[in-house]
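Structural prep section.
Before we set up the soaks we want a predicted structure of the protein with DP6 in place, mainly to decide which crystallisation condition to try first. Input record follows.
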Amino acid sequence: MLEESMDKPHIVTCTAPVNIAVIKYWGKRNEELILPINSSLSVTLHQDQLKTTTTVASSRSFQEDQIWLNGKEEDITHPRLQSCLREIRRLARKRRNDGDSGLDSTGLSHKVHICSVNNFPTAAGLASSAAGFACLVSSALAVYTLARVFGVEGELSGIARQGSGSACRSMYGGFVQWIMGQKDDGKDSLAQQVEPETHWPELRILVLVASAERKPVGSTSGMQTSVQTSCLLKHRAESVAPGRMVEMIEAVRRKNFAAFAELTMKDSNQFHATCLDTYPPIFYLSSVSQQVITLVHRYNSYYGETRLAYTFDAGPNAVIFTLQQHVPEFVQVVQHFFPPETNGGQFIKGLPVNCTDLPEELKQAIGLEPMPKGISYVISTKAGPGPCVVEDPTQHLLESDGWPKKTE
Ligand code: DP6
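Run finished without errors. Recording the tokens verbatim:
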């Protein structure tokens, strides 16, 4: 009986959020440790709309570490996965030696089974690796320390960073900075919360999912080429990003939307300019992205104030920031200039949006030629919390024996 219970896997499930950078990370000074050439700042998106769920099981009966992503077994020997698992085991060992966990001495040698799913389609173009690695390190540490581990996010962010740079920022909710650090070993290259998710309740985030287009160059290799060839990127990292970080933190703290929005747009534009300055050049923005940029500027100038901001990562989807009161009208604008398929699915997903009228004068002022089906749908969300433990065992993605659930 005792033998049996000792063989029973220990299982933990966590969820973790996606984040969207408003001061972009682009370029590494150390590829292996994933150390950036500039600090960055992001907003953590709410997990009600976008999240990764990961279950980790550990058992002495497992022969090897294994991972399943969105229903498919993947290669666990990937160097970034290996770095994360190695560092998690190291941290768990350190915590046990410090005497603050109920870990038994054999637990750390146990192999793990990891199963992870996203509640959003990869086509949404959102960096799923950020939520994925944040979720992996949260749940793996919890499984090894047999304890709730939140409170060590700083250290954990340094581990998530070694999975994917932007993942370190998904270790916190709200507004998060990734301080680039100076040390060669990367010990000071960590994320830190600037303000919690409750800080700016009126802030809304709309993800405009552009119709499926393949991402041309992945961020890892894209930024590598940029570091090698773009002198604009060097200038950005040395002389622009540091000042913008200070200004952005100030804008967030004061909830100064106009300042926040302007910096967000300028930083997105500069990031895409460094992509164009890369040789050979990299293009992430599509004609739909460019139409959104023009639309946002014309909308803001119609009102004579900055009510909307756009930002784009390594893909064509716009992420729009605005305040709650402007959402209904902006959604009407999007529907007008990117008429959706009439018989298609729901155009607005996520937080409900009230209907409103679109003033004829505003349509005229924007004056763009509509691009039918340019945007497939919009995800309406807000800032949200960092990784969470899922207490309900029925939500585990692995069976109680630690193997993936059979799908019909
Ligand atoms: C444009 O974090 O995906 O989204 O560290 O190589 O995994 P790796 O890159 P990744 O790059 C994200 C780039 C970005 C900007 C950002 O999120 O700051």
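Observations: The longest helix spans residues 231-253.
Flagged for discussion at group meeting.
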